[in-house]
């Protein structure tokens, strides 16, 4: 006869009990969680909050403005200009080379009085294979015949149109049959007609979906300009996950303190478990399983709350983000990854308490005595090494290298955590000189070093982040207050024709439109009581095809390697571009340059000795291979003011054309934030943009808010940690009460515990923040000589004082029963 059993029988004296023992321990951990989940409510709430915030952040990252507003579902956009036959031939060439294409026809922008950006009249198929997602019908129907048109809501408002009404444009009558929009760009202002119904095509956009290699290998029409869709493979979502990981590290520190307390409270039960035969592995498994259950419960609750909140609140973000949002299109795979990260963080937080509890001998566990703390120097050595590595990485980053920046921040943060036990040990050494109640409290911190260190690390991390933001804002404010350097003086603004200033296409405007825009700039200057208004003219290459209704101005730019996967050529970055302005008589007179002193053969006037290493670039396209002739002149050293002027001889020699780019407005004195805001609003109504010198007020306000948030977070950590530590010393408190200790003594115990942790965390966090900022600004450390005294005083003095007073006021009630012992 044969017998089948589900599990292999346990052979006594060998192994660790096998799967039956593991299942029994896991069931015990589950019952432990069901019985004591209220005692872990803070950890559950923190995990749920972290995952909910991550879910909402992932939703915002997935809904960030994307290039789908320009490309639709394509990855290449080819612009063709010229006559009808030339455009038709170019489209045929692209169709023969790459197969399926989607063509969008554009006419010249329709002028709107008082606006630099006209209305785009385009012919596009709403069911286009690639561009169909760029159109959405809100009211009415799609245009079909030659006399029908659909407009966006903003276009209808600017032109005074309404659904069913007529529109006479350039002598051609059309009927408005629909209201449309670009769901990926609600600010896109255009009028739509049926394909083939544009009278005079100015240029066409051809959408393609091919790989970079296929595009380079295929035949392309001459004179075509190409835009390549950038890789949008979740960069924003990766950034959200990185921030969520930092937040989960912070939560895991608090969770580690909570799991340590739970392990200490259940130490006798764990001792009994070991007394009946459980191995170290089983005891460790029991606490790890509890951590996994807590992590799963908290993360799932957070995912549900975050998803529900996103579904309800996401429509409110459509107007600020400028595009429609599919509230159910959350990146569910990434959300699941965030849930798994939270579970891993909870298990990691439970691992160290589980390891420590498993190593406690059975007799010591039954006596419920806390284990002796490990020497702090073991953590300090590794912490110092990581701190040095992190500071070195920040030094080598030069504020521009992301791998070094990320590595430096992570290494410095981990070092801060490892240095926390050193701070607790220092508190214990200082206890011998303190009065009775503070001495007992400070020694309790050393006695329960594991949870105290985790709490101190969390406080130092919160304070360190706040201190970094505060110091960075102070540097910005100091730079804004400096009399020289920066983009502009404090008494000047520049009114730009383009929203992208000098780093993107400048709209091509007719003389009448230029006059209207000049009147808008004069109105802004009049509101500011400006002393002078100087027109700024740039130059563009007339042979460069139009891009978004304009041509990029010619600049001096450093060439960079475009990198793998690019169509070829060179790449230019706006970070090192220098604008080229026309040396008009008004501009020369404003800077005190005598036109007669300009050499007849000079092309560029500049204070630079040489422009070696720079190209004459027109919006990322290489300029003519002609070496311009330089003449030295004195010009102001500001980033957005003219520092390179091109003469009439240079314009003619380099075959450029002058275009209006903006106006320099010179105020009577330093401009206030209110004046700049009013000028910005006036300019925005006319389709212009305003650039001013940063005042640092926004950064200072942000620093105040972050400082307050860091202090509030540190106080929340203290409220949780101090409660845990004082609950563990309840027996000592009963002994003190029986010995005649008064309420003031009990208050002083809690207040000293909170104050010592707050002061130590503030010192460690601020110190590490200062070291990190010194490494970051190693080339300009003088900016750190303007410390934000009020913010630092709030951190270093206000936080410990508030923590001490809070601990004094919120506790002190006499124990109800001195001899009452908690049941196990």
Annotate the secondary structure layout:
Blueprint: H1 18-36, H2 41-62, H3 68-71, E1 76-81, H4 84-98, E2 102-106, E3 120-123, E4 136-140, E5 148-152, H5 153-159, E6 166-169, E7 172-181, E8 190-193, E9 203-208, H6 212-217, E10 225-228, H7 235-265, H8 267-275, H9 280-313, H10 318-321, H11 332-358, H12 362-367, H13 377-397, H14 402-418, H15 420-430, H16 436-447, H17 449-481, E11 492-496, E12 506-507, H18 511-527, E13 532-540, E14 550-551, E15 554-557, E16 559-560, E17 571-572, E18 578-579, E19 581-582, H19 585-590, E20 604-606, E21 615-618, E22 621-622, E23 630-632, E24 645-646, H20 648-654, E25 657-666, H21 673-685, E26 689-692, H22 697-728, H23 730-738, H24 743-776, H25 789-810
Can you describe what's shown?
It is a single chain. 41% of the residues are buried. Helices cover 51% and strands 13% of the residues. The chain is built from 25 helices and 26 strands. The longest helix is centred in the middle third of the chain and has 34 residues, at 280-313. The protein is α+β, with helices and mostly antiparallel strands. Mean pLDDT is 79; it is low at 10-15, 564-568, 619-624 and 817-824.
């Amino acid at each position: 006869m044969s017998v089948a059993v589900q599990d292999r029988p346990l052979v006594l004296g060998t192994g660790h009990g096998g799967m039956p023992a593991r299942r029994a321990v896991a069931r015990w951990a589950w019952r432990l969680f069901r019985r004591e989940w209220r005692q872990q409510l803070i950890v559950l709430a923190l995990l749920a909050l972290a995952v909910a915030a991550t879910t909402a952040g992932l939703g915002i990252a997935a809904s960030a403005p994307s290039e789908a507003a320009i490309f639709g579902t394509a990855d290449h956009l080819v612009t063709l200009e010229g006559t009808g036959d030339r455009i038709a031939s170019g489209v045929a060439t692209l169709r023969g080379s790459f197969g399926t294409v989607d063509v969008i026809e554009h006419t010249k922008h329709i002028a709107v009085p008082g606006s630099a950006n006209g209305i785009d009249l385009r012919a596009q198929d709403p069911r286009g294979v690639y561009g169909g997602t760029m159109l959405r019908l809100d009211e009415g129907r799609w245009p079909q015949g030659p006399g029908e048109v659909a407009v966006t809501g903003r276009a209808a408002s600017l032109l005074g149109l309404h659904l069913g009404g007529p529109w006479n444009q350039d002598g051609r009558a059309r009927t408005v049959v629909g209201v449309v929009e670009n769901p990926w760009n609600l600010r896109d202002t255009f009028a739509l007609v049926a394909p083939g119904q544009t009278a005079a095509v100015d240029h066409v956009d051809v959408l393609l979906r091919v790989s970079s290699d296929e595009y380079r290998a295929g035949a392309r029409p001459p004179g075509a300009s190409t835009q390549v869709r950038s890789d949008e493979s979740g960069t924003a979502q990766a950034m959200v996950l990185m921030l969520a990981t930092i937040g989960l590290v912070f939560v895991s520190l608090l969770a580690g303190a909570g799991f340590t307390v739970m392990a200490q409270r259940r130490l006798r039960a764990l001792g009994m478990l070991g007394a009946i035969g459980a191995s170290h592995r089983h005891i460790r498994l029991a606490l790890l399983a509890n951590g996994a259950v807590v992590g799963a419960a908290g993360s799932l609750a957070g995912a549900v709350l975050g998803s529900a909140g996103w579904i309800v609140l996401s429509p409110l973000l459509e107007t600020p983000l400028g595009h429609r949002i599919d509230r159910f299109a959350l990146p569910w795979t990434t959300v699941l990854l965030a849930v798994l990260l939270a579970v891993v963080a909870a298990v990691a937080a439970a691992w160290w308490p589980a390891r420590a509890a498993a190593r406690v001998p059975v007799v010591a566990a039954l006596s419920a005595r806390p284990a002796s703390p490990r020497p702090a120097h073991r953590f300090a050595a590794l912490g110092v090494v990581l701190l040095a590595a992190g500071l070195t990485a920040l030094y080598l980053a030069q504020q521009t290298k992301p791998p070094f920046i990320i590595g430096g921040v992570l290494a410095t943060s981990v070092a801060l955590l490892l240095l926390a036990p050193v701070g607790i040990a220092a508190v214990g050494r200082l206890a011998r000189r303190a009065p009775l109640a503070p001495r007992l409290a400070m020694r309790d911190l050393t006695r329960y070093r594991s949870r105290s260190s985790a709490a101190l690390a969390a406080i130092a991390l919160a304070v360190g982040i706040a201190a970094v933001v505060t110091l960075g804002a102070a540097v910005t404010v100091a730079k804004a207050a400096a009399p020289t350097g920066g983009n502009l003086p404090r008494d000047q603004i520049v009114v730009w024709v383009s929203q992208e200033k000098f780093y993107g296409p400048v709209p091509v405007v007719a003389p009448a439109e230029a006059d209207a825009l000049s009147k808008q700039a004069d109105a802004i200057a009049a509101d500011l009581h400006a002393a002078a208004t100087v027109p700024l003219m740039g130059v563009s290459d007339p042979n460069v095809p139009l891009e978004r209704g304009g041509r990029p101005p010619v600049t001096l730019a450093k060439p960079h390697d475009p990198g793998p996967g690019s169509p070829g050529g060179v790449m230019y970055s706006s970070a090192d571009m220098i604008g080229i302005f026309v040396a008009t008589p008004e501009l020369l007179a404003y800077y005190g340059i005598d036109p007669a002193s300009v050499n007849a053969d000079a092309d560029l006037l500049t204070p630079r000795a040489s422009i070696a290493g720079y190209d004459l670039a027109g919006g990322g396209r290489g300029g003519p291979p002609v070496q311009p002739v330089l003449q030295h002149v004195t010009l102001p050293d500001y980033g957005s003011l003219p520092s390179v002027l091109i003469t009439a001889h240079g314009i003619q020699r380099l075959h450029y054309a002058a275009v209006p780019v903006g106006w320099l407005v010179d105020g009577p004195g330093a401009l206030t934030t209110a004046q700049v805001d009013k000028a910005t609003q006036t300019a925005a109504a006319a389709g212009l943009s305003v650039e001013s010198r940063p005042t640092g007020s926004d950064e200072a306000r942000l620093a105040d808010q972050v400082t307050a948030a860091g202090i509030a977070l540190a106080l929340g950590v203290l409220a949780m940690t101090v409660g845990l530590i004082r609950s563990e010393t309840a027996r000592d408190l009963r002994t003190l009460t029986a010995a005649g200790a008064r309420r003031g003594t009990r208050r002083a115990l809690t207040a000293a515990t909170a104050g010592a942790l707050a002061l130590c965390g503030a010192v460690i966090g601020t110190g590490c923040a200062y070291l990190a900022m010194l490494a970051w600004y190693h080339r300009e450390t003088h900016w750190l000589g303007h410390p934000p005294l009020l913010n630092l005083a709030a951190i270093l003095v206000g936080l410990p004082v508030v923590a001490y007073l809070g601990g004094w006021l919120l506790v002190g009630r006499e124990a109800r029963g001195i001899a009452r012992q908690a049941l196990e």
